[in-house]
């Protein structure tokens, strides 16, 4: 039962984090005329840093850390489920950080 609860909680937290990142992707974009790169405007300027390759994963990590902070401040332990949920959240954060490290290799 605990395994099912932890799996469900982890999947729900990850889905929430991804849905938040999808909502930012669906936001209206600026017109193409306003999106002139600074490097094109200044030919002698140094190139800008490359964009983050996986912003959704970083947002998911942030969402999981915020969820963990809320769980840590909960009034009671919910029959031990809060402790298990915190462990599952820590594991989800660890896995996402490993995924980012793997991509760099």
Structure report:
- By secondary structure, the protein is mainly α.
- It has one domain (2-23, 53-104).
- 67% of the residues lie in helices and 0% in strands.
- It contains four helices and no strands.
- It has helices at residues 2-25, 38-41, 55-72, 81-104.
From the alpha carbons, calculate the radius of gyration and give it in angstroms. Answer: 19 Å
According to DSSP, the number of beta strands is 0
SSE succession: HHHH
Count of separate DSSP helical elements: 4
Output mean pLDDT: 74
How are the secondary structure elements laid out?
Elements: H1 2-25, H2 38-41, H3 55-72, H4 81-104
Could you give a quick summary of the protein structure above?
This protein is mostly helical and 105 residues long. 67% of the residues lie in helices and 0% in strands. Helix 1 (2-25) packs across helix 4 (81-104) and helix 3 runs antiparallel to helix 4.
